[in-house]
Write a structure and sequence with these properties.
By secondary structure, this protein is mainly β. The chain contains no helices and ten strands.
Length: 113
């Protein structure tokens, strides 16, 4: 039996979308308070779920599945930052997140935002 963390505790906000915001990518708030793509090493505030009509639905809490690059993130509490391509990477200077699942075939991690 597979274990699913999908949408457990999901909390979302609506934010104005910067031109760089894209569904399925981690994001930050830019200087204008808009949801924007992160550059490599940025702290991220959530995951963009949808972009419509100039607004973005951003998941800021609960479990979320995101792509990763580089080394496989460790299970448990692990420091992560944005990888610059919409996913995350292990980063000793990053923010600590709970990594609950890792899929090395799909290159995704399930984290608690």
């Amino acid at each position: 039996m597979a274990i699913s963390y999908e949408e457990i505790g999901a909390m979302c906000v609506t934010a104005t979308a910067a031109s760089t915001a894209a569904a399925g990518k981690v994001c930050k708030l830019d200087s204008g308070g808009r949801a924007a793509n992160c550059t490599a090493g940025d702290r991220f505030c959530g995951l963009v779920l949808h972009v419509r009509g100039g607004n973005a639905a951003v998941q800021v809490g609960g479990f979320a599945q995101v792509g990763y690059t580089g080394s496989v993130p460790a299970m448990g509490y692990t420091k992560l930052s944005a990888d610059g391509s919409g996913g995350v990477k292990g980063d000793t200077a990053g923010t600590e997140y709970l990594v609950a699942a890792v899929d090395t075939v799909k290159k995704t991690v399930t984290i608690l935002l």
